[in-house]
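Question: Send over one sample?
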Amino acid sequence: MVDENEIRLVLLGIKENIAGEAFPGADDLEMPEWPRDPFHVLIATVLSQRTKDANTYKASKQLFAALPDVRAIADAEETEIEALIRPSGFYKVKAKGIKGLCQQIIDRFGGKVPDDIDDLVSLPMVGRKTANCVLSYGFEVDAVCVDTHVHRISNRLGWVSTDDADETETALRRIAPKDKWSEINRLMVRFGQKTCLPRNPRCGQCPVSSRCNYFEKLKKA
């Protein structure tokens, strides 16, 4: 089984070879102009579902410029929200979900995003990945946020052998040092976008290929 020191070394190798860390709503060229608080992190992460970072950035920027807080979104017409978040894709579903999400935050939590994962996942459009992103990026507490990049890279490295994101989260919580939980997502998202691609990963450019099970198998093939 991989140990904590190995995880620290791999994360350090990745950190030294990427330009900046990930943040919900950011794309390659632009960091968010809106507040980095739990509410904005939550909505930007919901908008990021099933779309590219550049589209999330455009949709989030337009939405927050027009409807900057939970009450404004809850009170807005769905058609207005749809128009603002159209770049994110699936905008009708997301607009309905975001409006309902904001209304529940008002009705159930006094207008403030809860800081408990069970409360978060009880909200519309919020699964464990989104909830953990809110905890990590919004509340700045240690949380393992597993998206497609974290799931793929953790399996390629040989840290875990899992079938889905929830299994990966459970495994990483067990083996990774807690002070590195949040860093895993912040680093692996950028790394997965630029180097450890879903198809045709750039193993020749990888700073941690010598520590990667996937690369070792390629060499033996």
